[in-house]
């Protein structure tokens, strides 16, 4: 580990919840430090807490206990409005289930995060078209998610995660629906 502070730092993080009268310990005492720049892969069997861990790092859920510090921000102490701003400005998230808005086109799904960051319309459109071209979907801009294959939806989700040029991208099985060449 370097002398610079980790971009992601978790101290004794736990996430427990009740499910069907049973206590589920999705995370229990996780300590983690990830330095930047670079790429880190978190691997493990299904149900081992990988998605829960990403949701903690991405400020989409709060831990039952422990401390989550990302990009110098102690997320536990932030009120909901500040967490929303943090997510918008700091994290791009590729969800396992895509989470595309079904009544929006591919282009609109990618421009939406930029709209929340008050990026001017022409700049949003230019950037979204460039990102969709980079993921091989330049000819599918006007298609809605229901008109796209699973792999195409996943690529829209990847483009959307990159839309605000976030310093941190969290990807939950980002290439699960892609062939090996496209995934690369």
What does this protein structure show overall?
The chain has 184 residues and is of the alpha+beta class. The chain has six helices and six strands. The protein has a four-stranded antiparallel beta sheet, covered by helices on one side. Strands 5-6 form a two-stranded parallel ribbon. Strand 3 (65-70) and strand 4 (73-74) form a beta hairpin. The longest helix has 14 residues, at 121-134. The two termini are 28 Å apart.
- Could you tell me how far the N terminus lies from the C terminus, measured between alpha carbons in angstroms? 28 Å
Portion in strands: 15-25%
Q: Based on helices, strands and strand pairing, what is the structural class?
A: alpha+beta
Backbone CA Rg? 17 Å
Count every beta strand, where a strand is a DSSP E run of 2 or more residues.
Answer: 6
Overall shape: it is globular
Portion in helices: 25-40%
Give the rounded overall mean pLDDT: 91
> Largest beta sheet: what is the strand line-up?
2-1-3-4
Q: What profile does the largest beta sheet have?
A: 4 strands, antiparallel
Question: Count of helices?
Answer: 6
Order of helices and strands: EEHEEHEHHHEH
- Low-pLDDT segments, ≥5 res: none
How would you summarize this macromolecular structure in one to three sentences?
The protein has 184 residues and is of the alpha+beta class.
């Amino acid at each position: 580990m370097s002398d610079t502070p980790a971009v992601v730092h978790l101290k004794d993080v736990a996430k427990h919840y009740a499910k069907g009268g049973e206590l589920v310990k999705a995370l229990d005492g996780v300590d983690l430090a990830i330095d930047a720049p670079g790429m880190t892969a978190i691997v493990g069997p299904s149900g081992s807490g990988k998605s829960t861990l990403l949701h903690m790092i991405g400020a989409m859920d709060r831990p039952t206990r422990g401390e989550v510090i990302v990009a110098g921000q102690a997320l536990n102490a932030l009120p909901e409005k500040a967490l929303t701003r943090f997510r918008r400005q700091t994290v791009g998230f590729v969800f396992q289930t895509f989470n595309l808005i079904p009544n929006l086109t591919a282009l609109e799904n990618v421009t939406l995060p930029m709209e929340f960051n008050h990026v001017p319309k022409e700049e949003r459109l230019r950037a979204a078209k460039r990102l969709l071209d980079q993921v091989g979907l330049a000819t599918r801009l006007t298609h809605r998610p229901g008109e796209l294959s699973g792999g195409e939806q996943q690529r829209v989700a990847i483009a959307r995660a990159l839309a605000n040029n976030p310093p941190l991208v969290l990807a939950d099985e980002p290439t699960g629906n892609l062939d090996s060449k496209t995934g690369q």
